């Protein structure tokens, strides 16, 4: 990959401030975080858990120096880089982490004054809350990334027995935690439950010939009530995105695969259980 000078991309930035002189004492590569108003060295191996003036809690590492060689542009020094990642949301940060192994002279740019994208933790007036996603599904790649970033001891696993609630029609309604709870929870109507049950066993429209969104897949398989009262709140908590624009295959690939392999969600579930019992996975050790 050819070396890229950041100053060659004027459309990314509205103001440029000179970078401090780079330090040659650091042995480990650092990420540089760049926003529209200033160059901010942002990522290294040491962690920070600070709160800025708006209450945003930054769960990132702070770099005190960096190792990339500078080049002069208009009298100011700018780093020459192997790669520039545009956007410091979760996708940009994960990409930067992966490619930094081969391209250590790396810069991550961001238009806002903080990293994280839609992942936003706010601490204000003694309260702590999430304005974006509040959890993630612990897949093997996600856990491996967390461990590689030094966050193993910071992971907080959800209690599977803890009650979950959805606010619906001005009332907190419990989400069923096991199959025996399904007939009794009041988040869905009886017709809605019947629609979901029949759809899950395969009595629903056939899959279309194009890639479905999360909303399209759930409405077709399980009905409108499951989508509006269960899946839509879940998508907000995990992806902070619009389920009508999220790819079902990309966001919930395991559920999508159930229908593909078993002809229905229930059929695919039984098939997956049978395969898992005959070929058990080794214990997780990211």
UniProtKB/TrEMBL annotation:
In which broad location class does this protein mainly occur, judging by the first location in its UniProt entry? plastid
Any keyword Nucleotide-binding? no
Pathway(s) this gene product operates in, as recorded in its UniProt entry: Porphyrin-containing compound metabolism; chlorophyll biosynthesis; Porphyrin-containing compound metabolism; protoporphyrin-IX biosynthesis; protoporphyrin-IX from protoporphyrinogen-IX: step 1/1
**Region named Disordered:** 1-25
What region holds the Amine oxidase domain? Answer: 90-268
Query: Any idea which UniProt keywords this protein has?
Result: Chloroplast, FAD, Flavoprotein, Heme biosynthesis, Oxidoreductase, Plastid, Porphyrin biosynthesis, Transit peptide
> Which superkingdom does the taxonomy of this entry point to?
Eukaryota
Q: EC number(s) per UniProt? A: 1.3.3.4
What this protein needs as a cofactor is: FAD
Biological process, per Gene Ontology:
protoporphyrinogen IX biosynthetic process
**What's a Gene Ontology MF term here?**
oxygen-dependent protoporphyrinogen oxidase activity
Catalytic activity entry: protoporphyrinogen IX + 3 O2 = protoporphyrin IX + 3 H2O2
Query: Which cellular component terms (GO) are annotated to the entry?
Result: chloroplast
Intracellular or extracellular location(s): Plastid, Chloroplast
Q: How is the cofactor bound?
A: Binds 1 FAD per subunit.
Q: Which InterPro entries match?
A: Amino_oxidase (IPR002937), FAD/NAD-bd_sf (IPR036188), Protoporphyrinogen_oxidase (IPR004572), Zeta_carotene_desat/Oxidored (IPR050464)
Q: What does this protein do?
A: Catalyzes the 6-electron oxidation of protoporphyrinogen-IX to form protoporphyrin-IX.
UniProt similarity note = Belongs to the protoporphyrinogen/coproporphyrinogen oxidase family. Protoporphyrinogen oxidase subfamily.
For this protein, the record's NCBIfam families field holds:
proto_IX_ox
Protein name in UniProt = Protoporphyrinogen oxidase
């Amino acid at each position: 990959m050819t070396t890229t000078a950041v100053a060659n991309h004027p459309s990314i930035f509205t103001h440029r401030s000179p970078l401090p002189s780079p330090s040659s004492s650091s042995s480990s590569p650092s990420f540089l975080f760049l926003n529209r108003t200033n160059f901010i060295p942002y990522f290294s191996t040491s962690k920070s858990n600070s709160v800025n003036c708006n209450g945003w809690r930054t769960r990132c590492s702070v770099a005190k120096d960096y190792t990339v060689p500078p080049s002069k542009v208009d009298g100011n020094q700018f780093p020459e880089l192997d790669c520039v990642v545009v956007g410091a949301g979760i996708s940009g940060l994960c990409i930067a982490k992966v490619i930094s192994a081969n391209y250590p002279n790396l810069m991550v740019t961001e238009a806002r004054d903080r990293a994280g994208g839609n992942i936003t933790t706010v601490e204000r007036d003694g309260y702590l809350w999430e304005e974006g996603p509040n959890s993630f599904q612990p897949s093997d790649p996600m856990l491996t990334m967390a461990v590689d970033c030094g966050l193993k001891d910071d992971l907080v696993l959800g209690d599977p027995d803890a009650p979950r609630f959805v606010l619906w029609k001005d009332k907190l309604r419990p989400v069923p935690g096991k199959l025996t709870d399904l007939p009794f929870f009041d988040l869905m109507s009886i017709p809605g439950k019947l629609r979901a049950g029949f759809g899950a066993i395969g009595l629903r429209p056939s899959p279309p010939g194009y890639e479905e969104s999360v909303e399209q897949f759930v409405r077709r398989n399980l009905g409108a009530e499951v989508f509006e009262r269960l899946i839509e709140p879940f998508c907000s908590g995990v992806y902070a995105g619009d389920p009508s624009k999220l790819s079902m295959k990309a966001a919930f690939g395991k559920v999508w695969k159930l229908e593909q392999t078993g002809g229905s969600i229930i059929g695919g579930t039984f098939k997956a259980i049978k395969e898992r019992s005959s070929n058990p996975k080794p214990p997780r050790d990211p």
